[in-house]
């Protein structure tokens, strides 16, 4: 503190002060400008160290005298406590770090919006996307983690080809914004105010602005030849977007190859106390330590779970003691998230109420290993860590694809060796990203008030409930399609049974109660039903948007549970009427071969499709007269896909496809569960096997050894 005060109190040399005055006079020719005085250290923003927020930045600085004062404070911040601690942690000698002050005219993002963007996904390191965060007002709230911002992903390869690929959006709560303080009360130049509810319920950027930002990000990345972390602001006066700062991304881009993965898994589950955004993919556990403010940092012990409202750079000396970090506020580009990634500590940010729900001393497990949602579980849950290693995978005479339902895990899964996705399930996306029955969306003006409120809440940020359903479905499919691009991604149209549809919001209003839904109103029968036509149209619109607007033509279509050849003919015509014509723009439409009639009349079904993907689960139950939903585990345990009758059906379907020179793969559970079945399928000439992601490497290596 004494050193800092010496620097603040020491006058500038006359020559330097005059140079600053002359330059500022040109910058502020009209005398009406507002400026930011920012630090830039020589060791700051290197590819292996972010130094995020270590030195000071001052906003809304007005007039030369204020500028000179703030420059001295920036110089002094080279010796603040957090910067000294960070240099020690990173192994930098104090004398080797120099610092300059930059003076920039402020963009009026206090009247617009601002945020941070990365030219890769900050969690998985997947580098074909631009990840953008945005909130209203000055960008400090996003950087500091004071708000939960809006988030967007844009796919770089098809953006470069002229498409419009916003593959994911997530609306943030955006409760606060920072703006200039016209009164400059108590000497403060900015103030924080509440955001009106109407603005919170809208995205803080238009789609066109998201695309514009992504293009800027790609230009900057191309110039620097490395993944970048970029701050930006949209001026609310002139409406233009400005790039404020660009620095190397310091975590994922520094990690060596992807041929080894460390996977964390919970060996059990428990009561979920709090949820938020997962940072990293690890699991941490320990005793909760709630820290109200920086004065209480000394209470944190090594291995504690640090729980607080939000962190700033002053917290870093204690963050590295924690086994995990949990915050009420912040998004995936906030300070807590950046430092947690750098330290390799799991963090869950933007929980809203963690400090209210959790209590100091309580033992918890913090899991970031279950996708985009981070979960804080009650108690200490045993964890296993698996090292999965692969080098160059050998040729084995069959393509190994994978089954993917959760778009949030797609970027990670794509780094495992694969030949694409053999089964992407729309049901997961509808369940988790939408959770509203399609008829409730279409019938929105006429539903009761409680259901109407639920639909409105889900559809925040979208033009209408119908637009929400289509867009969210498209985003989920596009995320999986982008993760594996340009490899094929076979998307199965929805295959909910009526009992599953009933669980969606509003579902009980529209679905029958069937005795055996597994054999009931599902698959092609549902698509062709008159009262489901508009629902199916929305699915088709989503798929068309992914392929035509976003340019993800690697996305292919699979039609499930086609009972008769007549249904096959009708469903192909229905798809074409909704703009998904087989063969147009390279579209391949395959059929899920899962009903015995499909194998028995395989030649006739193949006249209407580009191949089969065998669903061995349903083929087994329908060939052997089982009901895999009945709960009769003892009965089901006696039978599986290796039964001779089932293998007869599988062999018949495979041979028919090979004879017709059409695609044939399998996407059922069988090859994942039974390595001997995988070997038999390869011997039959099957072209691909789609496996659960956690069995891909083992099955591939086992087949290579045979």
Notes on the protein architecture:
This protein is of the alpha/beta class and 706 residues long. It has 4 domains: 2-105, ATP-grasp fold, A domain (Dna Ligase, domain 1); 109-254, ATP-grasp fold, B domain (D-amino Acid Aminotransferase, Chain A, domain 1, 2-Layer Sandwich), CATH 3.30.470.20; 260-387, Glucose Oxidase, domain 1 (3-Layer(bba) Sandwich); 390-705, Phosphoenolpyruvate-binding domains (TIM Barrel, Alpha-Beta Barrel). The chain is 35% helix and 22% strand. The chain contains 29 helices and 28 strands. The strands form 6 sheets. The protein has an 8-stranded parallel beta barrel, surrounded by 5 helices. It has a 7-stranded mixed β-barrel with strand order 13-17-16-15-14-18-19. It has a 6-stranded antiparallel β-sheet with strand order 7-6-5-4-10-11. The longest helix is centred in the C-terminal third of the chain and has 20 residues, at 465-484. The N and C termini lie far apart (69 Å). The model has no long low-confidence stretch (mean pLDDT 91).
Q: How is this fold's topology laid out?
A:
Elements: H1 2-9, H2 14-27, E1 35-41, E2 57-61, H3 64-76, H4 81-90, E3 99-105, E4 113-118, E5 129-136, H5 140-144, E6 150-155, H6 156-160, E7 166-170, E8 176-180, E9 190-194, H7 197-200, H8 207-224, E10 228-234, E11 241-248, E12 260-266, E13 272-279, E14 283-290, E15 305-308, H9 316-319, E16 324-327, H10 335-343, E17 347-349, H11 354-357, E18 363-367, E19 373-378, E20 383-389, E21 399-404, H12 410-413, E22 421-425, H13 426-434, H14 438-442, H15 449-458, H16 465-484, E23 489-492, H17 498-501, H18 507-510, H19 524-528, H20 533-549, E24 555-559, H21 565-577, E25 589-593, H22 596-600, H23 602-606, E26 611-614, H24 616-624, H25 633-636, H26 644-659, E27 663-666, H27 670-673, H28 675-684, E28 688-691, H29 696-705
Parallel strand pairs: 14-15, 15-16, 16-17, 21-22, 21-28, 22-23, 23-24, 24-25, 25-26, 26-27, 27-28
Antiparallel strand pairs: 1-2, 1-3, 4-5, 4-10, 5-6, 6-7, 8-9, 10-11, 12-20, 13-17, 13-19, 14-18, 18-19
Helix pairs in contact: 1-3, 13-16, 16-20, 24-26
